[in-house]
Amino acid sequence: MLYELIQFSDQIGALNVFKYQTFRTGGAIFTSLLFVMLFGPGIIDLLRIKQGKGQPIREDGPKTHLAKRGTPTMGGLMILAGITVGTLFWANLKNPYVWIVFGVTVAYGIIGFYDDYLKVTKRTSSGFGGRFRLLLEVLVAAVATYLIMSLSKTNLQDALTVPFFKNVLIHLGVFGFVFLGSFVITGAGNAVNFTDGLDGLAIVPVMIAAATFGLIAYLIGNAKFATYLQLNYVAGTGELAILCGAMIGAGLGFLWFNAPPAMIFMGDTGSLALGGMLGAIAVATKHEIVLAVVGGLFVLETLSVIIQVASFKLTGKRVFRMAPLHHHFEQKGWSEPTVVVRFWIISVILALIGLATLKLR
Length: 361
What we know:
Layout: H1 21-51, H2 76-90, H3 96-122, H4 130-151, E1 159-161, E2 169-171, H5 173-195, H6 203-220, H7 223-228, H8 240-258, H9 267-284, H10 288-294, H11 296-315, H12 325-331, H13 336-356
Helix pairs in contact: 1-2, 1-8, 2-3, 2-8, 2-9, 3-4, 3-9, 4-5, 4-9, 5-9, 5-11, 6-8, 6-9, 6-13, 9-10, 10-11, 10-13
């Protein structure tokens, strides 16, 4: 919206500032943060009234979590609203990458919202059928990946780039790349969903990943920086930095209310949407593998669930005291704040390693 003001920059020189993605990214951060901070209390009160008893708590989970009964969920609505406002105000709305990534975010948010709705109304910790939900996620991801391919240069359309190697492109073909993109987007959405189990645990690593990919998107979408760093230039992706900024701002606002003891939970509404958004940005910027590094915490959480289920089905024994991984450490005696802060530290380290791939080529 505000990007269109550059049309009048010839008459008013100060409007030239809206050309710069860095300025608009900062604007998106502030706008999203302000929106969530101002309207967050009202949204929380409304959700508390509508939900009554709040999000159901797992009976087999850590006993300390039973004290959280009555806390409302669907806090992802606050985050999505903040991202929407920040994006609409500051992004170039003529950029197709903006709408593809935003579309994935909203679609995954709707899927997560329905899941949260069933949990609250049926008073159960499980939502609607896992297979049907996964099918919907894959369909959204496949369409988004195909659209991203249609925007890419011919030599990059079906290519997987490999970190640390400047000229390595693995061409997967149309079906191969659609499969990869669908896996990355769907996997990222569900990985963040698995991580969202403690107050403040998921949102900070999400913001760290968003900041990292905001920088990556800016560099990849800038021909001069991409050439200097020997990266594959993808025209138009720089605008995704504004979406990352909106995610950071909305995340900061949400963290204000989600800090221990949480006034509201993110729910699948937020975790699926944020993970899907990160996955779509990674596919658009051709940094799918780097997402696995930067979002390594999410990967570990997901692997812990897969290993736990597979081990129990095959041997009848559990590898972890409880899955996902953060619950394992809780069961070992770590306090919730200790688990959360240490996982944040891991996220920062992984983000730095991910950023190192930009120069070490």
